[in-house]
Automatic annotation (TrEMBL):
Pathway: Amino-acid degradation; L-phenylalanine degradation; acetoacetate and fumarate from L-phenylalanine: step 6/6. Keywords: Calcium, Hydrolase, Magnesium, Metal-binding, Phenylalanine catabolism, Tyrosine catabolism. This is fumarylacetoacetase. The keyword Metal-binding applies. It comes from Brevibacterium aurantiacum. Substrate binds at Y191, R205, Q301, Y305, T407. GO terms for molecular function: fumarylacetoacetase activity; metal ion binding. Residues 82-181 form the Fumarylacetoacetase N-terminal domain. The active site is at H196. Ca(2+) binds at D189, E261, E263, D294. Its EC number is 3.7.1.2.
């Protein structure tokens, strides 16, 4: 018997059984084998009766995938056909128009999007959207087109003998160079975590209410710099700027409080030249999701941010993952946003809509050590609310517009998504496993983010990783 329900994952551990290669074939679907029939498990009280129907449905979904399919042969945990993220790859070390292509990831393999389109029998107009070095052309299309392509790809990759066919358009991920997945048109960063906003307010404004009066009425945000958005693996040069000093006059020099912000990024498509996108239609304009690190110079930020908000403390670098997962992949990872304490304006009121939050877990790493794990499900505002808010005044939306969620933080210390919070402004340094203490980023350190979503269907969707190494200021 195969189980794929997150509610029964404990059974996999209890029996510690993996039979006849099923785990290897379907591990990306979160499955395991149990040496008991459903009826016996129910009789033993190990599986509640009300779970049996869902388990049987999930068992059929997984067992229907042929062993000769690409989905079975190529998939790895987090990168099965339930994910299929897009990215831009170059064959060889140098990116160029002649060797850069749009691809999809299946396991540790990159598939040519155009080549896969031909194999899946897509019509010429859809293949034309995939004949590109990155996502730019596909982002000009609409939700039905994106979903049609994704569905056809999943169906083909899940069909018998597709593994052999896919080999002709496949490259090992180790043999390609990953590029920025799309051309960033505009970049907006939000501040959508109540826990993060409360922590930062308490650190920066200890004598005032942590949350300013407007915070629970709208998603606070600022316009960033599209030109300093980089793909994962790009080194980060320590920025310079004016730093506050206890003596009164600021000093100029390298930031002493360099930090990260663990965020999710969302890329828009299907542009709206005159903005004003209703909340009910906002997700039709969100193509996909990625990890995002909003590198931050806290001392420079603290001196400059009043009265107009962040500028040089943020604009020097933002890193995103190489892979963009279609928003549709998270349909079974939806959760409700937190209970509203203030009535939202009609244009932001999501009480009549399906849940807009996402069940995603994000890890913060210093080298190989995980120092925080933070839940995206705790975010106060949804991606749809952010997009609707940033267009409500008539500002246009363009394909390739990127917006970040703001730092993801939960209620516990180990769930804080920045070192400003983890060290409480430097007053409570972290103790790393090598015995050292850390408050803010040091030259030479490599900092990473990684994230996964666990869906109600038992599938795991990985959002990959974002890494950056800190270089000394010039």
């Amino acid at each position: 018997m195969l189980l794929a329900s997150t509610d029964t994952n404990w059974l996999c551990e209890k029996f510690n059984y993996a039979g006849s290669g099923w785990r290897e074939t379907f591990v990306s679907f979160g499955t395991c084998s149990i040496p008991e029939p459903l009826e016996s498990l129910e009789a033993l009280g190990l599986v509640p009766a009300d779970l049996l129907t869902n388990i049987e449905k999930e068992e059929k979904i997984v067992s229907d995938i042929p062993a000769t399919s690409a989905a079975a042969v190529y998939a790895t945990p987090g990168f099965g056909v339930a994910n299929l993220p897009y990215g831009s790859y170059s064959i060889g070390e140098e990116a160029g128009a002649e060797n850069t292509r749009l691809g999809l990831r299946l396991g540790e393999t990159v598939l040519s999007a155009e080549g896969l389109g031909h194999l899946a029998g897509l019509p010429a107009d859809l293949i034309g959207l995939l004949h590109a070095p990155n996502l730019d052309q596909l982002l000009t299309a609409d939700r039905p087109t994106w979903d049609r392509i994704r569905t056809d790809f999943i169906n083909f990759l899940s069909s018998a003998d597709s593994a052999d066919a896919v080999a002709s358009v496949a490259h090992s991920i180790d043999a390609v160079t990953m590029n920025l997945p799309f051309t960033v048109a505009d970049y907006v960063d939000f501040y959508a975590s109540e826990h993060h906003a409360s922590n930062v307010g308490a650190i920066f404004r200890p004598d005032q209410d942590p949350l300013l009066p407007n915070w629970k009425h709208l998603p606070v945000g600022y316009n960033g710099r599209a030109g300093s958005v980089y793909v994962t693996g790009t080194d980060v040069l320590r920025p310079k700027g004016l730093r506050p000093e206890s003596g009164g006059a600021p000093s100029f020099g390298p930031s002493r409080r360099l930090d990260i912000e663990a965020e999710m990024g969302f890329v828009a498509g299907h542009g709206a030249p005159h903005g004003e996108i209703p909340l009910s239609e906002a997700e039709d304009h969100i193509f996909g999701v990625m990890l995002l690190n909003d590198w931050s110079a806290r001392d420079i930020q603290a001196y400059e941010y009043v009265p107009l908000g962040p500028f040089l403390g943020k604009s020097f670098a933002t890193s995103i993952s190489a892979w963009v997962t279609p928003l549709t992949a998270f349909d079974a990872a939806r959760v409700s946003t937190p209970t509203r304490e203030k009535q939202l304006a009609d244009y932001l009121d999501d009480s009549h809509l399906a849940p807009g939050g996402l069940e995603i877990s994000v890890e913060v790493l210093v080298g190989t050590e995980v120092v925080a794990t933070t839940p995206y499900s705790a975010m106060y505002y949804s991606p749809a609310q952010m997009l609707t808010h940033m267009t409500v005044n008539g500002a246009p939306l363009r394909p390739g517009d990127l917006f970040g969620s703001g730092t993801i933080s939960g209620p516990e210390r180990g769930q804080r998504g920045s070192f400003l919070e983890l060290s409480w402004g430097g007053k409570e340094p972290l103790n790393l496993r090598d015995g050292s203490e850390m408050s803010f980023l040091e030259d030479g350190q490599t900092i990473g983010l990684r994230a996964t979503a666990q869906t109600t269907r038992g599938t795991i969707v990985s959002l990959g990783e974002v890494w950056g190494t800190i270089l000394p200021a010039t």
